[in-house]
Amino acid sequence: MVRFSVTMDDGLTGTIDKSCAKKKVSRSDWISEACTTHLAKGNGAGTIGVTTLPSAGPVLLPEDHNMPDYDETYRNFRIEVPEYFNFGFDVIDAWANKDRNKLAMIWVNQEGVEKRFTFWDLMRLSNQIVNIMIKYGVNKGDRVLIMLPRVPEWWTFTIALIKRGAIYCPAPTMLTPKDLKYRINIADIKMVITMQEHAEKIDEISKECPSLTCRVLIDGKRPGWISYPVELNYPAPVSAKIVNLPGTKKTKSTDPMIIFFTSGTTGEPKMVVHDHSYPLGHIVTARFWHDLRKNDLHFTLSDTGWAKSAWGKFYGQWIEGSAIFVYDIRSRFNNTEILPLIEKFGITTFCCPPTIYRMLILADLDKFDFSELRHCTSAGEPLNPEVIKAWKDATGLTIYEGYGQTETVLCIGTFPGMKPKFGSMGRPAPGWQIELHDDNGKPVGLHEEGRIAISTKPRPVGLFRDYLNNEEENKKSFVGDWYYTGDKAYRDEDGYLWFIGRDDDVIKASGYRIGPFEVESALIEHPAVQEAAVVGSPDDIRGLIVKAFIILKPGHKPSDSLTHEIQNHVKKVTAPYKYPRAIEYVESLPKTISGKIRRKELREHEMKKFSSENLTDKKK
Fold it and tell me: Is the preceding omega at residue 458 within 30 degrees of 0, hence cis?
């Protein structure tokens, strides 16, 4: 160690001493940290404007933030995307080689079983899976559907697929054989990865899926399936070092990496393609919105089959060096189950849908110790100001709202360091130029309703490439130098955006995005249903529920037993979360001249009815 004598004026000395007292460090440690940080900035690590992986920089105090000044960060922030990038090698393996003991994941199930994984573990486990993929001919560009619950293998297999250059397609475990058949065929899926519990659904439709050549079970043996446990050890243990075969190709940042399926209103789910730069886009999500540091334990409550898992339990968190907490939910779930987990494991940052927050505030929150929890976020649908206030009264923490889509990363948000406006989406995320346009593509004025438009000049890191094999939807969404999200909002005088509603009719209920077309199609398959329209109906707890307006065929009459029969029918035909919780039988449906159902009119009817009922309750 070398000692230096430093001369500085009294004012600077006083400022440093105050910071030392606040951080509880010595003056020499403070100066050493400041020098380390300054030198790191010189070589591009930890600076706003340059992406160096893994992240570097000092550990911040709870009251400090990664974005101390929104305007300055928004002006200066850039993500530099290299020509070649692979999240598996450049993030997971990079952390593993930097610190083989660094915690990456704590996994817990509802029975209390607990497992911990370091980045070193994830590197070796994913390398073994890559070697299995090589053995069975899964190559760069091949498409693989992965349908697993929140088990550790979802992460290790996904990392392996990324390393191999295959394109992975996450799928919720609740999908029916009909849903899976559509996805496998439309996406030209080569391999399916699942577990015993869901294998029968694949076997039922496999003969009708010509592209499907490989089926993998992570937890057992089954005729016609590759067994992961067997492959690991037979005829010899699989190497934890990737076999370097001739012809193995590196992944460019522009190579396709993932296909998400997202709901639409006029047809089957669309295929959203993201490339290998997508993980880098989530630096904004994790560093600025989640406000993560490399010693954090972050908990996002979401299913592995949806894009929200990429938002909150994968890319950005591990780029920042944080550990993730995973709660594996398989049986009946009580929202308040997570409260003792937050206390026991010392969760520091937390994100869940508004529906969950609405349930949590009903519990006696004073019984739990939230002293380690310092930051909370929410996305998926607007959060009621009353819920935000109740949560803050109980925990002392503000819930920071954010906005984005399957097609994007966090592109609008309320960030730490900004003054929250309850009910607002926030302001555009650094790296995202966002305007509100009228139907002619012209910017609208303050407090005027406009379509949310994202500039593609330059194209923000984290914006999807396109809708696969859907030229009509691409032309509709990408117009000139803009991508139109399909949502509407207005902007206030401080630059905050306020969500108004969707341009289309996708229902956001309990954290899920549900396309009316899928539910209506299932309803019409019932022998008693002649015609149906589905909309989101306001609900105190869930925010929105799926409601169906049904015209019955002649000879059928409304009844409670018929309602239950129709609901159970929908649960069997499509994923159970899509079923209509409310059904209203009607003689006719509002339609346009061309015969299209006016769902907007039905939604407005439900809103007026809800408002009227609330007003009556208040008068009582």
Answer: yes
